[in-house]
Specification:
binds zinc ion, alpha+beta
Length: 97
């Protein structure tokens, strides 16, 4: 199954080892993304860096796998942590590549 949608919200990191993007079953690091329809996908950080982009100043910017994971970790953190570290709702918005 490939992931569907155009805009995604990173919901957090995941330990589930199967990638919904490519079907890989030995993932060590993955994130959960939710599309505009509310469907959730478990995506390995390598696939996420390939198929998702961050919007920055009107452009689509490629993410490194490390950036994918740090966004996932931030999404899993508490509201207070996000505020303290300058993460707003927009920080977790990604778009299809
Ligand atoms: Zn994959």
């Amino acid at each position: 199954m490939a992931i569907e949608g155009t805009t995604f919200t990173v919901a957090g990191t995941s330990d589930y080892p199967v990638c919904d993007c490519c079907g890989k079953t030995n993932l060590t690091r993955a994130v959960i993304v939710r599309n505009e329809c509310g469907e959730e996908f478990n995506v390995g950080c390598i696939c996420a860096s390939k198929v998702l982009r961050q919007r920055y100043q009107g452009k689509k910017v490629k993410l490194s796998t490390a950036a994918v994971i740090s966004i996932g970790k931030a999404a899993s953190a508490s509201k207070e942590w996000k505020e303290r570290n300058g993460y707003g709702a927009h920080s977790f918005q990604l778009v299809a590549a």
